[in-house]
Amino acid sequence: MLEKLCMSLSVLIWLVAVAPSAWCEYEAVEVKDGCMVSGKVEFVGKIPEPAMLVVDKDRHVCGMKTRPSKKLIVDKDTRGIKNAVVYIVGMTKGKNFEAKWHFVLDQKECEFVPHVQVIPANSTLEIRNSDPMAHNIHAFSLKNATFNESIPSRGRPIAKSFGLKENIKVGCDRHGWMRAWVVVREDPYYCITGADGTFEITGILPGKYKIAVWHEAYDAEVLAATEKEVSLAPDQETRLSFKLPLD
Prior knowledge:
Elements (H helix, E strand, L loop, with lengths): L1 H16 L1 H5 L3 E2 L6 E10 L7 E3 L4 H4 L3 E3 L16 E4 L4 E2 L7 E6 L4 E2 L2 E5 L3 E4 L7 E6 L6 E5 L6 E3 L5 E6 L7 E7 L4 E3 L5 E7 L2 E8 L5 H5 L3 E5 L4 E9 L2
Parallel strand pairs: 1-6, 2-20, 7-10, 9-15
Antiparallel strand pairs: 2-17, 3-4, 5-16, 5-18, 7-8, 10-13, 11-12, 11-14, 14-15, 18-19
């Protein structure tokens, strides 16, 4: 009896942990009369100076004693916020992914490049070390398997893949100021804002949607308050403005 109960519990745990990913698989279809959502993510209030990160080792490669944080980058002319990920919530059907399924995260002059990137689930992320000294790559994931591996000076890249949607913080334990984010998505309806805070998402099937923003500098409650509901007609372009205060 106890053995059967344990087996039942194991099956239940598997269903909770694994099955949702299978049940929510994205379906690529032909998109006719596709819609577009575009706009801007901008900062509200007095623009803060970037925090300064202390460079406390390997300065022959890493450079100066301090460097500005990339956690929150605001363009002073446009007030646009860089590296915000604008996405459509709960998309299960629509346009196909672009052909690119190979992405790169490099370590150059003791900094991750790029600082934020979005990759499709199950694509390949190639992690490189272009510096003349060793680094390591530490992924602080919760849904996907975490890892912490060393990469020797200009050594062979490490290939990783993530099967579940998640915003993954990445660090280097040897150089504590190094940070990056890998945002894993299960559908292609997203855009990373540029330096001026603008975004554009195209090829959307007509219908009602919720548009949301993720940014590393803001907690989930603040970001949830900015979500917008839209109703898109065929061939329609809808412009949105997301305003984020100092958290």
